[in-house]
Design a protein that fits this description.
Layout lengths: L1 E4 L7 H16 L4 E5 L8 H4 L4 E4 L12 H5 L6 E3 L1 H4 L10 H9 L4
Parallel strand pairs: 1-2, 2-3, 3-4
Length: 111
């Protein structure tokens, strides 16, 4: 299982896209790929991460947090997105995913 955290970064956009390209190539060889978007600080270009097997999305928990905007959330797919409780406090209607099922799927390499 391989992952990439997506948030504000010092990396250039081209470097991040290069990371995505490498993860996509590894996924084609059978690896499972997830993206951790914690904290969600803006709209994510879903086209760039659409190949991921799982998205983990959380909110900013700093002293002066960036409150996620609804359009940032609506743009992400609900299927196979694990919404952390710190983002669900702003949007309690977000669907829950059974973490045990996700773990079993990744562990058994059947996603």
């Amino acid at each position: 299982m391989l992952g990439q955290t997506i948030t504000k970064t010092n990396k250039s956009y081209d470097t991040i896209l290069g990371d995505f390209y490498q993860l996509n190539k590894l996924q084609q060889r059978g690896y499972k790929v997830f993206f951790s978007i914690e904290p969600l600080l803006g709209k994510i270009d879903y086209e760039q991460v659409s190949f991921a097997d799982l998205l983990i999305v959380g909110a900013d928990t700093s002293k002066n947090p960036v409150i996620p905007k609804e359009e940032w959330i609506d743009y992400l797919p609900f299927q196979m997105t694990l919404w952390k409780s710190n983002i669900r406090k702003y949007y309690p209607e977000l669907p829950e995913i059974n973490k045990d099922i996700i773990w079993k799927l990744f562990k058994n390499n059947k996603l």
